[in-house]
UniProtKB/TrEMBL annotation:
Domain of life: Bacteria
Keywords, ordered alphabetically: DNA damage, DNA repair, Methyltransferase, Transferase
Family indicated by similarity: Belongs to the MGMT family.
Any single GO BP term: DNA repair
Any GO molecular function: methylated-DNA-[protein]-cysteine S-methyltransferase activity
Enzyme class: transferase
Protein known as: methylated-DNA--[protein]-cysteine S-methyltransferase
Stored Gene3D superfamilies: Methylated DNA-protein cysteine methyltransferase domain, Winged helix-like DNA-binding domain superfamily/Winged helix DNA-binding domain
Length: 191
């Protein structure tokens, strides 16, 4: 049994190859519960790199492989994101101010997601319009794939993209989550 902070530090150094003592992790990592299900959060020095519906283990593995290996809880960096998500779901926040780190997105997807961030709360765009706005009007499938792979859901609002014929289209969190987000933003009215 470990009795003191020094012993715990020594044990962590032996058992965890990424442990760096009292220094905060390079990537803050945790999960938050929301009205659309649990979201796995990861925050780097640049901003939110993950706000994902994916399984925590899948996100952790990807972050470890593509961003950094020193990953752990860090309330100082995670809590501001959680507070903004709580305020958004409570209807008190219309625009996220937390910086976003899109390094998990491909260069094409990054272009799509950056353009998407200009679609305001309460508005939608279509896959076709988004493709036209990035100068690739025939790249509908590629735009759809970029949105499906969005590593920062909700904050980078891929739920605001609907089909050209008025259908909701797909969403990483599922159709019910997309409908709930659009209802929260007043795009869909009624029950």
């Amino acid at each position: 049994m470990v009795s003191g902070a020094g012993e715990l530090d020594a044990l962590l150094r032996i058992t965890s190859p990424t442990y760096r003592g009292g220094r905060p992790p390079d990537v803050a990592f945790g999960t938050t519960q929301t009205p659309v299900g649990p979201l796995v959060l990861a925050v780097t020095g640049r901003g939110v790199v993950s706000c994902s519906y994916d399984d925590e283990d899948v996100v952790f593995e990807r972050i470890s492989r593509e961003v950094g290996r020193f990953i752990g809880p860090d309330a100082r960096r995670l809590d501001p994101v959680r507070r903004e998500l709580d305020a958004y779901f409570a209807g008190r926040l219309r625009a996220f101010t937390t910086p976003v780190d899109l390094r998990l997105a491909t260069p094409f997807a990054r272009t799509v997601l950056q353009m998407l961030m200009s679609v305001p709360f309460g508005a939608t765009t279509t896959y076709g319009e988004l493709a036209r706005r990035i100068g690739r009007p025939r790249a509908l499938r590629a735009v759809g794939n970029a949105l499906a792979a969005n590593p920062v859901c909700v904050i980078v609002p891929c739920h605001r993209v609907v089909e050209d014929d008025g259908g909701l289209g797909g969403y990483a969190g599922g159709a019910a989550a997309k409908e709930r987000l659009l209802r929260l933003e007043g795009v869909i009215r009624g029950h």
